[in-house]
Amino acid sequence: MDVSFLINSLNDAQRLAVTAPSKSMLILAGAGSGKTRVLVHRIVWQIQVEGLSPHSILAVTFTNKAAMEMRERIEKLLKSPTQAMWIGTFHSLAHRILRRHATKAKLPDTFQVMDSNDQLRLIKRLLKSLEIDDKKWPPKQIQGFINAQKDEGLRASHISDNGDFFLRKMLQVYQEYEAVCNRLGLVDFAELLLRAHELLRDNESLLQFYQRRFRQVHVDEFQDTNTIQYAWLRLLTEGRDNLFIVGDDDQSIYGWRGAKIANIFSFQQHYPNHELIRLEQNYRSTGNILQAANQLISHNGNRMGKQLWTDRGQGELISLYSAFNEQDEAYFVVDRIKQWLEKGGLKKEVAILYRSNAQSRQFEERLMTAAIPYRVYGGLRFFERAEIKNTLAYLRLLSNHDDDPSFERIVNLPTRGISTRTLDNLRDLARSQQISLWQATTNLLEEDFFPTRAANALKKFKQLINELAINCEGLELFEKVKLVEKQSGLIDFYKKEKEDRGEARIENLAELVNAARSFDYHLEENEVLSELAMFLAHATLEAGEMQGADADDCIQLMTLHSAKGLEFKQVFMVGLEEGLFPSGRSIDDVAKLEEERRLCYVGITRAMQQLCISYAESRRLYGKESYPSPSRFLREIPAECVQDVRIRANITRTVGTNKNQPILPLTNQYKAGEKISHAKFGLGTILQTKGDDKQEKVQINFYKGGLKWLILAYAQLERV
Fold first, then answer.
1. Which of 251, 327, 359, 685 is catalytic?
2. Strand 243-247 to strand 216-219: parallel, antiparallel, or no bridges (unpaired)?
């Protein structure tokens, strides 16, 4: 068999990784080194050359988008479908196992997966039932606590409060939350992984079945795994030496989300016979950019080490701009973008990366003023939009009347006149009798508990759900969605909203019908689940997606965390100041500071051709004005890779290391960064002056009028 097409396009290190004998392997893949290519070619090599059945391969990724891309590339190389292969995210694969073995997992066959919002709503209800003040005990904080414990593999029963009042209260809610979820058959995202791990751990025959089935286990972005994910992988590969991981310790940036960089080091101890291969040739960036990245990351102590290189030449020097303030920084960046566009560059080839979402406002305002289209990357995804979630809640309640989060979401949507007091009565009965809200409604209606108006509203709601269930029988999936959207009253409800907003919502509902129409539904043997249930699970998993969709031709604004996995021809990294980047919360913690440095490394390696880094000498952020020092990361980049970009004017600027150092005077009258007011142009900030005596001019950034040069003698400025 001719398999030259699998290896001819690979470099030496990639070829070694793809063709190595089946065993546990760690592929240390630097940024832009072709890791996905290696993973895909490795899987196809094992099928085509080593004769493995596609049925025996498991491939795990972190996003549905990455899983889809991997599947498509494998199908293209194999020239055949990949349905027999288990390719997906940790959550989707865990969900698949739980559906196949729900009874052994101590779950009902109709268990429902809650997204983050449904989980939060349930926690709020629990706090109320437990008479816990949600102002003292914020629901989101409790949600984060519960999910963090599950990510560590810990049930409430595993944790001792050790006399800690805070922990005791958290555990009280966690225990009640577990009890309610078990009673109602509800599973949150973290529970998918924990329950799947417990299922295999506690059922030896089942574990052996999956160990025999998956002869090769492949994992992408391994450095992002958390405790329970790694434990799950170890169970599947225990004693089999068949775990193939691709990762980069230098790109581990999700510690705040539970990712454990230690996993990539533990792998070497748990799989002592593994082979390590480094992918160091970079196909994305120029030599200067890579040299800067290599030197920066070398300042981290605990790393496996590698040296990125390219054969594409040194390229342009990195531009470093010292801005007067955040407004000057935004003006500079947008002016550079204009130059890029004038030379024929595309808008979607440009990204502005920042540490905090709050930094985006200045760039948004300036881009709008310049009439340059932009997109804040990481906005609401399709399945996260309210109108979509409302429709899905109707569909979930049709499938499972005991789905309390869905019941609460739509019982009064569209408005039916069901009061908060009525809902409180339902919750009280449901809690006291340990039944669902639907059953509580049925019981109280039979007892004539409610006033006539409330009773009629609840009866109509129950009748609507029952009629929808009957009318949906025998329909195709997309027809069910279309029917529910119309008969539920959601379409008429959104038509009443303001024209643009309502129209957009209705367009989204139409797109949901299209999504149902094109939904790829297939089951393996022994999997018994309706197409609607699979679609609802798919929607929940998609709503949890962290990776954005492909953008139109517009400038991309995003946090550095959001930029991971992306690349752009021109990149602006802004706000490199002590306390902002690195974050003030990380400066005194070595581990957190090293993660901030890895985040900077990720940002630098997003750039393909041009990289511009900026910092401000004065910045107003979070309602406070400060005079920060330039980031320590700037000092860790080789000087020979950088060119300093400054406005050439007759001005003294400060670049000292004292974060409280004031800006030096421009003239005897004004200082850089000083706020002034003008009779015609309004409020503004002094940027610079030039000339002298009666011809002295001052450049001012007016908040509404933009940049202006005024003759100081005639400007009649007033300090604010």
1. 251
2. parallel
